[in-house]
């Protein structure tokens, strides 16, 4: 499957599930590649107030929007390249196997591929990144929320995938990224992602 097209949070009256799917899609886009001029333009008009003032995600979302509005396409691209695409070892790894096993292409990736096979999903042959790339696992979550196949696109499948392939490492990845001195825009991306992961974790806790 392919990475989601750039999207932003829906208006406050959007359904909760649609909003969740769109957040995963947005984060997938931001981690897969630096934001395009079009996506940065969407941030210029993005809604920044939650339906209920003081919502848990409201402040980190406002901070992310402010950082995106203060950035431009060349700046964002330069930051992305410096953080994630360094020659040799990148400053910040984007792959789950690194955070769970300490190395790339290890057992967590094998387990992830097995889970994807059970869901009937496979990596797009044109995609160079491995399936444990944070953008890919977020895109899978988006699919499990918004997809049409109810046999796999349901809350229980979301919970299982999140517990096995998202929750064990994304928070540590966000902490690493947020603390990096070279992160500006992507510090706010990391902090918003971290807050969203906390909301998702709590919601899945309530299912158990």
UniProtKB/TrEMBL annotation:
InterPro entries the record matches: DMSO/NO3_reduct_chaperone, TorD-like_sf, TorD/DmsD_chaperones
Any Pfam family hit: Nitrate_red_del
Highest classification ranks of the organism: Bacteria, Pseudomonadati, Pseudomonadota, Betaproteobacteria, Burkholderiales
Alphabetical list of Gene3D superfamilies matching this protein: TorD-like
Tagged with keyword Signal: no
PANTHER family with a match to the protein in the record: CHAPERONE PROTEIN YCDY, DIMETHYL SULFOXIDE REDUCTASE CHAPERONE-RELATED
Protein name (database record): TorA maturation chaperone TorD
Keyword Phosphoprotein in record: no
Record key words, sorted: Chaperone
């Amino acid at each position: 499957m392919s990475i989601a097209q750039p999207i932003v949070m829906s208006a406050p009256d959007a359904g909760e599930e649609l909003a969740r799917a769109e957040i995963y899609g947005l984060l997938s886009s931001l981690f897969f590649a630096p934001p395009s001029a079009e996506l940065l333009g969407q941030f210029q008009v993005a809604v920044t107030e939650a339906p209920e003032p003081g919502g848990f995600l409201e402040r980190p979302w406002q901070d992310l929007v402010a950082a995106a509005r203060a950035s431009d396409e060349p700046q964002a691209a330069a930051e992305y390249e410096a953080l994630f695409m360094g020659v040799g070892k990148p400053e910040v790894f984007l792959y789950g196997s690194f955070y769970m096993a300490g190395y790339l292409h290890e057992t967590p990736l094998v387990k992830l591929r097995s889970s994807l096979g059970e869901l009937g999903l496979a990596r797009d042959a044109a995609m160079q990144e491995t399936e444990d790339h944070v953008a890919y696992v977020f895109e899978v979550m988006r699919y499990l929320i918004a997809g049409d196949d109810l046999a796999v696109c349901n809350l229980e499948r979301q919970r299982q995938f999140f517990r096995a392939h998202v929750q064990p490492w994304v928070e540590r990845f966000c902490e690493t990224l947020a603390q990096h001195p070279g992160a500006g825009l992507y510090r706010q991306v990391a902090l918003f992602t971290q807050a969203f992961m906390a909301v998702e974790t709590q919601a899945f806790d309530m299912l158990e």
